[in-house]
Amino acid sequence: MAILANGESRLLIDGKLVAGTAGTFPTVNPATEEVLGVAADADSDDMGRAIAAARSAFDDTDWSTNTELRVRCLRQLKDALREHVEEMRDITVAEVGAPRMLTSGAQLEGPIDDLSFAADTAETYEWRTDLGHATPQGIPTRRTLAREAVGVVGAITPWNFPHQINLAKVGPALAAGNTLILKPAPDTPWCAAAVGEIIAEHTDFPPGVINVVTSSDHAVGALLSQDPRVDMVSFTGSTATGRAVMTDAAATIKKVFLELGGKSAFLVLDDADLAGACSMAAFTAAMHAGQGCAITTRLVVPRAKYDDAVEAAAATMGSIKPGDPTSKRTVCGPVISARQRDRIQGYLDLALQEGGRFACGGGRPADRDTGFFIEPTVIAGLDNNARVAREEIFGPVLTVIAHDGDDDAVRIANDSPYGLSGTVFSGDDARAQAVAARMRVGTVNVNGGIWYSADAPFGGYKQSGIGREMGVAGFEEYTEIKLIATAAN
Ligand code: NAD
């Protein structure tokens, strides 16, 4: 495998690595703006072939019922990715602009290792449950509840944590017996293409079970939501695109699984270590240039301590210089593209127009004229009604908001169209737990606990999504329930 060295990439369709019919498109290093090489550009015919291959692998082979084969293939994939982890790391740092230090966790190694959880779940899962005897309408009946694969899954993913999101769909969907077409974001095609290449060359996945289709054209991905041969769409990305996916999928009443945007709140209660909590919030908001859907981008602090909180957040955030992602010390690299950088700058300009001020940062770093860098920025002086407090910015930007006690902090946290994640810091665990219980979000960090792990479901309330990824709940998203009622007399 030499995907980085030769810049060459192919689609994986029906077990074969093939060129894209629409030719190729460039993939760019966001830290240097250099073209790394090209990716295969699929057109609608390529996508049609991938869907047909996945359909046939589901309908005409024993993949969906051969648990032993599925578990073996997933373990092979995990081992092969592990063997190539250093090449994968280089691709990820170069193409995503991901700080190298994050590739030992959620940005690469975490999701590779989590394939074991998917394989283990398939192996130990209770595919059939005896519901026992009953006499509905006077007829003695034995009831069995069966879990089965949904069918053909279309997986559409974004660029910010490509391996985490690609593999958190591929692993459980295949483990549960589905076949799949992976359509990654056009900004990070190589991360997915490399997985396709490893599958083709180092595993026994039968042809068509998994297909990897890179494309520069969003409309090619949209075919997955529209095509009647696809049974389920598993989508991670912005709420606006999620809405389009759901609309497209409505025509064929597809199962839709959505992981969308967020505007999560970090609540500091008045008995917490203010400086420690604010510093942690600032560090988190700057990591990977703030390109994480679950990052807590609203720091909500006691009104009486507002100025101290802004100062503590700015001291940390201002000390984090956006830098070269290949360096082991870098926490905040570039954002993915010029388009994203300009979008973030637009929000920074808006913050000033709305009456806010920058406690640190506020634009492009003076010492970096190439690369898509933005300074870690703390916005102060606004309340939760400001657009920068309501809309997802997806950059290293933290807005500090004052609260008037625990009830008000909860009100502010929940006053959002999103409901993905949240954090509570308090000196009193019971008090923090009571606040956490009132937050309308899918994951909560209390006093520094980590919710990210293979066996822990992740996902959002409200406009942050539908369903859960990871954990047994994430596996079950890719199953249907069948109830078999057998006359017992
Ligand atoms: P995006 O919505 O622009 O694109 C995501 C994917 O959807 C890409 O593969 C894109 O090609 C595809 N796409 C675009 N239009 C489509 C359409 N009409 N039909 C089908 N597919 C289409 O998102 P992005 O900019 O790549 O990623 C950033 C967003 O993703 C942020 O909003 C972030 O919060 C969200 N995100 C959410 C999670 C989560 O788990 N909740 C995780 C990571 C990122």
Automatic annotation (TrEMBL):
Family to which the UniProt record says this protein belongs: Belongs to the aldehyde dehydrogenase family.
Positions annotated as active site in the UniProt record: E259
Domain Aldehyde dehydrogenase residue range list: 20-483
Record carries keyword Cell division: no
Protein name: Aldehyde dehydrogenase
Molecular function as annotated in GO: oxidoreductase activity, acting on the aldehyde or oxo group of donors, NAD or NADP as acceptor
Pfam families the record matches: Aldedh
Keyword NAD listed: no
UniProt-listed Gene3D superfamilies: Aldehyde Dehydrogenase, Chain A, domain 1, Aldehyde Dehydrogenase, Chain A, domain 2
Keyword line: Oxidoreductase
UniProt cross-references to InterPro entries, sorted A to Z: Ald_DH/histidinol_DH, Ald_DH_C, Ald_DH_CS_GLU, Ald_DH_N, Aldehyde_dehydrogenase_Rv0768, Aldehyde_DH_dom
Superkingdom of origin: Bacteria
